[in-house]
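Record type: monomer structure entry
Structure origin: computed from sequence
Chain ID: A
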Amino acid sequence: MRPFTIRQFADACGGIWHGPSELLTRQIGGVVIDSRQVTEGDLFLAVVGERADGHRFIPEVFQKGAVCAVSQQELSDPAGPYLLVKDTLKALRDAAKAYRRTFDIPVVGITGSVGKTSTKEMVASILGQRYQTLKTFGNFNNEIGVPLTIFQIDVCHEAAVLEMGMNHFGEMHRLSKMAQPTHCVFTNIGVAHLEFLGSRDGILKAKCEMLDYAAADAPVFVNGDDDKLAALKDRAVAFGLSPSCQVHADHLEDLGLDGIRCRIHAQEEQMDVAIPLPGTHMVYNAMAGTCVGLSLGLSMEEIRRGIEALQPISGRSHILRTPLYTLLDDCYNANPVSMCAMLDVLARTSGRRVAILGDMGELGEESEQLHTQVGEHAAALGLDAVITIGTLSLATHRAAGASAALCRHYDSREAFLAEADQLLQKGDSILIKASHYMGFEHLVHTLAGQT
């Protein structure tokens, strides 16, 4: 991270210093909430989590060389200097906001119901053709992940791409206050988080909180094919498959698991590009990246190179070719839109097509209906096998019915794995997808022979 002192951190969060005053001018090497990751010179925030209380590890972090700790509890016998605050997570947010203000680089904020992570990867790959670009690690997109990512920005960085997720009103407002995006991307408005936001209109309202602290002149880029995002068209650049969008794509050519080709039109230019990841949704990601790239001065050729240099990440349209199977690992998260999109990808593969689907969370009162719709979609595609795992996905199983040659339901991963050898065949193309809490990465590792 760039120079930022303990005093600056303390002033930003209103902390009370317990330690030698001369240490306040000490620069912080990094900001950490996991005691296992502490290195020499780091500042450690003691966070009270569901599984552990970080305050227990304060003596340990000083042994590892932490410069100070931030605590929301008074320490009677501290092992080193510390800042006392009312709430360590709020202190993290407040300090990240102050740190963000110390640099003047483009910060791209990305939100939406589906595709945030893959769009973030696409935008970063494109910007990386010209700029030293920091991107959100993995899925660090919440009120802990975003500030920790902001603290990763260093003097070498010329741009940052931040994924911003939420599931309650007010969260995006707080994320925007920290990130202060200079460019805003909205991927779509789906049905994820209906449990907490009530309706797609509620989801739109919550996502639009990103604009609260965006730069006054921040360009906004929206999926012009999304009916709800049409509300932003007057102040935004639209991308989509419709020719009415300022940035649009046509001549789509499906390459199966090898990706998809298309022609992207923008600013009276056009380019033919081969996107190395499968699915029509990747075309939308490429168009979003094109919007951001053009706004930051990249040429169409630089944008094309960035799109074609895109690398898959685990759990996100990640293709694993093993001696037995071809695995389509999309298990990091799931909602009805992304489920159906990946089922479409599976349907276009060769060989025996097997879908292993799990529960989708945070869908509220419409959960059973939406799981049923996924099952109906799987049935319409005529897949060879549909295997469901979990409680909620029983509705998916019932809707898939007898449409597949093989249709089974299991209560747990373990129950399925006990019979997997009898169900799967060499040469199968297998989609593995569920919400993150289902732990389907274990299925990926097992079927890939990595356990």
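Annotation 1: DSSP finds 15 helices and 20 strands in the chain.
Annotation 2: Residues 33 and 45 are 5 Å apart (CA to CA).
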